[in-house]
Amino acid sequence: MKLNIRGKLFAVSLALIAVSVMTGELYLRPAVEANLLERIRGDLYVRLALVELAAREQRDLERASWDALADQLGPRAHGRVTFIDAAGTVLGDSEVSLAGLEHVENHRDRPEVAAALAGGAQSSTRYSATIHQRLMYAAIPMTLPNGARGAARLAVPLDEVDAAIARLRHILWASLALALVVAVVLSSAAAQMLSRALRLMTEAARRMAAGDLDVRMRPAGTDEIAELGRALDGMAASLASTLTALRTERDLLGVILESMQEGVLVLDGESRMILVNPALRATLSLGADAEGRAALELIRNADLQSILERAQLGQGSVSGEIETTGPKPRRLLVHAASLPSLNRKPQGLLAVFVDVSEIRRLETLRKDFVANVSHELRTPITAVRSAVDTLRHTLARDPTASDRFVDIIDRNAQRLGALVEDLLDLSRIESKEYRPEATPVSLRVVSDQVLALLRPRVEEKGIEVTNDIPSDLPAARADRKGLEQVFTNLLDNAVKYCGPGTRVRLRAALGDGTLRVEIADSGFGIEPRHLPRLFERFYRVDSGRSRDMGGTGLGLSIVKHLVEAMAGTIGVESTPGQGATFWFTLPGVDSAGPEPGPDVQHRPVPRESPR
To answer: Which residues contact 291 (CB under 8 A, 6 or more apart)?
Structure first.
């Protein structure tokens, strides 16, 4: 049975009282009895002295006179008076009649009598077979009339002693009952006081366990309960401070993990995911239920499995690249390392995923750019060197042929110069060194100026060019020099790649605050497979034909960067055999779209010479 605090206090009090009563019963009763017996014994000796003094006046040894004296002294001495001669014969007894003395046994073997006859004084306690009572006997020596030694004995019943012992026992039991009542009252009061404080502490401890660390006991007093309450308050304050620090660190870690562009994956000792940050979820298309599941169950990649297995084998930090498939393929650099084991659990694993797709793409572009530039430069340089060597041998022997080689050198030198200038322009635009100066520009005016510069070539090839851009069209917000370069390159391409009799039209219209400009021709058109890469550097639909016409392969790439620098877009639409339409958009003057970068005093301006 489970006892509460009140029951426990009552049980302790009852046990203490019971122990006290048992102690009194076992120790106090014999002590009181011995004390009473000692007092009775001393009193017996006093009264015996008076009896012996009265017996000195006796002058004969007649039993009748001695029995009469015993009967006379018994009531005075408040006891049984007995006179015994040296042979142990009872001469008189206050409790035995004269006729009955004949039947009283010899008392010489009685301890107190034997001691008195020997000249000493002694007492003893025993049950009397004569009067059937428990008595205390005391005997002292006396001198009989004939000069012989006798003994005077006085005996008193021990009823008073037994009564005193009984009264003591009654007092003890009454004290026990009273003590029980007092114990119940006091234990109830003490238990009420203690249980109230303990209930408050228990409730506070429950609230602390539930997470409410703001609760405080603030106990008064200096006892153990108050000390316990203050200890609980101190523990709550310490836990609150520790949990606040842990929450701060957790929140900081969560913000860091959510803000990281790199993916973070933490596995336990059984290769189950216990942490996946948002960047990795987005990269690998993982759901919200990823935690707790096996990594290779959701990320099926043999290269990743190899990296994680090597890291789990304790090979230190393991790195490697993996490729992911899906709507957005990625190339990821994975750094994996094992974590130290905690609480005797198997060690986990930390893997960091860095998206290097753009870096690898840029590296590929750089390699392609170097290869394309080298290829583009090799042809004119080789032509110039060959022409120089030939010119060196024919200059003296055939002066007329020398002019032809000089033309070859001049043409390839111009091609080299155009290529270098295009590369410089493209480099300045891509490095953000070129910042367009956005001003209101009339599309009709700029297009007319460019057409005037290209008119001789247009007439030479027999191409019909029509400018249908309305004169009253709202002005565009653009850099004038950059816009001239865009018109020049697009019209120059149309003139280059269209045959005689081809028609080229310039159109423009306003829609939603944006101006859309189109340069459409009725030439050969472009196959669909070339359209996505048409604005890449050095990309040509017909490489041989483009070089023969003096193209560098950078014109459309420059146009794309210029339009985008002026907050516009560019594209192409074409059907083979039906011509091509190059279009680009620019913000209107009243448009709330983003403006180009701030003006600069020394900004590079694209060249006006046509390609």
So the answer is: 273, 274, 275, 276
Cβ atoms of 129 and 105 within 8 Å: the answer is: no
Indicate if the pLDDT at residue 603 is higher than 50. Answer: no
SS3 57: coil
pLDDT tens string 152-188: 999 888 876 677 777 877 887 787 778 777 777 777 7
Residue 598 pLDDT greater than 50, yes or no = no
Give the whole-angstrom CA distance, residue 595 versus residue 279. 32
pLDDT digits 0-9 by tens, 224-281: 777 877 888 888 888 888 888 888 888 888 788 777 878 888 888 777 888 888 888 8
Q: What secondary structure does DSSP assign to 248-273, as a single string?
A: HHHHHHHHHHHH-SSEEEEE-TTSBE
DSSP annotation of 339: P
Of 83 and 200, the one with more pLDDT: 83
Q: Is the Cβ–Cβ distance between 68 and 92 less than 8 Å?
A: yes
| Dihedral sign for Cα atoms in the order 435, 440, 442, 446 | negative
C-alpha–C-alpha distance, residues 436 and 211, integer Å:
61
Q: What percent of the chain has pLDDT over 90?
A: 11
Residue 545 has pLDDT above 50, yes or no: no
Confidence of residue 81 (pLDDT cuts 50, 70, 90): very high
Longest dimension (CA), the chain: 205
Angstrom distances, CA of residue 108 to CA of 62, 71, 79, 90, 151: 19, 21, 20, 9, 10
Rounding to the nearest 10 degrees, give the CA dihedral for residues 351, 355, 361, 367: -40
pLDDT of residue 307: 84
| CA separation for the pair 80, 82 (Å, rounded) | 7
Q: Is the pLDDT of residue 484 over 70?
A: yes
Q: Exposure of 350 by Cβ count < 10 A (0-12 exposed, 13-18 middle, 19+ buried)?
A: middle
Residue 585 has pLDDT above 90, yes or no: yes
Cβ-based neighbours of 236, under 8 Å, separated by 6 or more: 204, 208, 213, 214, 215, 216
> H or E segment at 196?
helix 159-209
Q: Do the Cβ atoms of 70 and 93 come closer than 8 Å?
A: yes
Smallest CA-to-CA distance from 376 within 537, 567, 569 is with: 537
Distance CA 379, CA 88 (A): 167
* Count of Cβ atoms closer than 10 Å to residue 210 Cβ: 9
Q: Own/partner pairs for 263-266, CB < 8 Å, 24+ apart? A: 263/332, 263/352, 263/353, 263/354, 263/355, 264/350, 264/351, 264/352, 264/353, 265/295, 265/350, 265/351, 265/352, 265/353, 266/339, 266/348, 266/349, 266/350, 266/351
The listed range with the strongest mean pLDDT (36-40, 258-262, 447-451, 589-593) is: 447-451
Identify the helix (H) or strand (E) that includes residue 5.
helix 5-23
Q: Model-level pTM? A: 0.42
Q: Rg of the chain over CA atoms, in angstroms?
A: 65
Which residue type, as a one-letter code, is found at position 343? N
C-alpha–C-alpha distance, residues 540 and 529, integer Å: 12
Cα gap 95→71, rounded to integer Å: 7
Q: Taking the CB of residue 225, how many other CB atoms lie within 10 A of it?
A: 18
